[in-house]
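Worked example

This section walks through a single chain of length 191. The input is the sequence exactly as stored; nothing has been trimmed or padded.
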Amino acid sequence: EEHGHSGNADSPWKWVIDPIDGTSNFVRGVPVWATLIALVHDVEGPVLGVVSAPALHQRWWAARGLGAFANGREIKVSDVATIAEAQISVTFNAGWEKIGGTANLIALQQRAYRARGYGDFWQHMLVAQGSVDIAIDAIGLAPYDNAAVQAIVEIAGGRHSDRLGIRDYTQNSAISSNGRLHDEVITSLKI
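Given that input, the structure is written out below as tokens.
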């Protein structure tokens, strides 16, 4: 991956691109990888997102004021109201252990109806389309991991933040939810 900026540095608008999210999956032949593209405004944050997963034959996109879509059909998050009814997807890594969050993460998964590990962009898109209710990502993310998925999840009616509840795509962690469960998830993960 390459990092850098081009264009007018003073513009309030910027494109944030991850050419291959799920790089290790791509390298090993696992079809869960995608290209992520977001348009971000300095004040509003991500306002447009595209996630294209060609190996899965899936594409999600959303734009503020226009809606959120998956392969041409409008999507929205679930209306599940309790953790006990929720399907949760977690990407665990050593970052959770370093911050002392492993026990809380495991306890939250045990309270859920079902816990899985779909990983990377995919778990967040499953939240956006209402198939999963909570997605908790690894710690150590970059802005290009978060911007597009934040736009799509939020426009589909959900919430996206870091592990502390901060709505900022530049943070190093990511939690997506259907919105109804978000505050409880953040509280459950606090150390």
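What to look for: Helices lie at 23-28, 94-98, 102-111, 120-128, 143-155, 182-189.
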